[in-house]
Specification:
Helices cover 36% and strands 24% of the residues. It has five helices and five strands, in the order E-H-H-E-E-E-H-E-H-H.
Length: 160
């Protein structure tokens, strides 16, 4: 059995969307997925992409993915990587695939001179929380994620 990690290639937007949908189903958030293959393809494979995707393959078959982007910390004065999504198909868990994806992202941080790797996890997802803590991640309980979207975003933009 062999594990490889590789970057998504042009034409693989359908596969990315398939993994997004599987993750959303696991997180009980399928109703929130509005992304299309075209949207993901345009974001991932633009001439200067701002979002990236890596696949974990087990014996040549895609079994996991990570979608990430660069962010910036004014406190540290350094760029970092924000992990938007990570998912390993249930049948392939406990084989080191998630850890390999996280190690791959840590290496990307080193290669790009990034000062941190950061992500969010649902508070009910205790298996993932335990996994992240086993890697040395620190839970930032004092922070609350804020988001404007849809009508609220449009109203603020229009009213100024």
């Amino acid at each position: 059995m062999s594990l490889t990690i590789r970057s998504a290639r042009p034409g693989e937007a359908p596969l990315v969307l398939q993994f997004v949908r599987e993750l959303a189903e696991y997180e009980k958030l399928s109703h929130e997925v509005v992304a299309t293959e075209a949207m993901l393809g345009a974001a991932l494979f633009a001439p200067s992409p701002r979002v990236f995707c890596d696949f974990a393959e087990w014996d040549g078959a895609p079994v996991g993915f990570a979608v990430w982007l660069f962010d910036y910390s004014t406190f540290s004065g350094r760029f970092g990587i924000y992990l938007e999504d990570i998912f390993v198909r249930p049948a392939f868990r406990s084989r080191g695939i998630g850890k390999a994806l996280m190690a791959h992202l840590a290496r990307q941080c080193v290669v790009h001179g990034a000062g941190h790797l950061q992500w969010s996890v649902l508070d009910w997802n205790t298996p993932s929380i335990g996994f992240y803590q086993s890697l040395g991640a620190v839970m930032k309980d004092e922070w609350t994620i804020c988001r404007l979207g849809g009508g609220s975003l449009m109203r603020l933009a229009e009213r100024g």
